[in-house]
């Protein structure tokens, strides 16, 4: 597997032996499973509004609570602290291992992955635990913002409350 860190090493993105990119959601899913097995996962997992729905669905199927925070490590950390969770992060690879640190640390995440993987397990098998749901982020221009106040439009736009 390959390990890539950003300039200050607070984010991590990986690749498996086939060269497939492993994003933060996949890393979080794999760690959540391992931590649940080892009985060190507390509360559940915090993701963001950008987290893939496949991650949320997978964690719920595994009996792991999943909450969404606003985008940004600051909001992930705040919700983790508020709910006393010890795992959270973003699809971008900013992952907080609350058992060990209060901020994202890519090197720490890499070490925890290496520790969690069985030597005989391929990275593609270790990380391929949920099916990503196709998603796209697109800004939509509206001519009149009064439409957003309309009840039939407003209700579906409400964000999940934490």
Task: Explain what this protein looks like in three dimensions.
The mean pLDDT is 91. It contains six helices and seven strands. The protein has a single domain, classed as 3-Layer(aba) Sandwich (Alpha-D-Glucose-1,6-Bisphosphate, Chain A, domain 3). The strands form two sheets. It has a four-stranded mixed beta sheet with strand order 5-4-6-7. A hairpin with a 5-residue loop joins strand 2 and strand 3. It has 162 residues and is an alpha/beta fold.
Question: How do the strands and helices of this protein lay out in sequence?
Answer:
Elements: E1 2-5, E2 12-15, E3 21-22, H1 24-37, E4 44-48, H2 53-61, E5 65-69, H3 73-83, E6 87-89, E7 95-97, H4 106-116, H5 123-127, H6 151-157
Parallel strand pairs: 4-5, 4-6
Antiparallel strand pairs: 1-2, 2-3, 6-7
Count all strands and give the number.
Answer: 7
Kindly provide the name of the CATH class.
Alpha Beta
Q: Determine the strand fraction and express it as a percent band.
A: 15-25%
Q: What is the CATH third-level topology name?
A: Alpha-D-Glucose-1,6-Bisphosphate, Chain A, domain 3
Low-confidence regions: none
Mean pLDDT: 91
Largest sheet: 4 strands, mixed
Give the number of helices: 6
**Overall domain count:** 1
- The topology string of helices and strands comes to EEEHEHEHEEHHH
Tell me the radius of gyration: 17 Å
Category from helices, strands and their pairing: alpha/beta
Distance between the termini: 35 Å
Return the CATH architecture: 3-Layer(aba) Sandwich
Global outline: globular
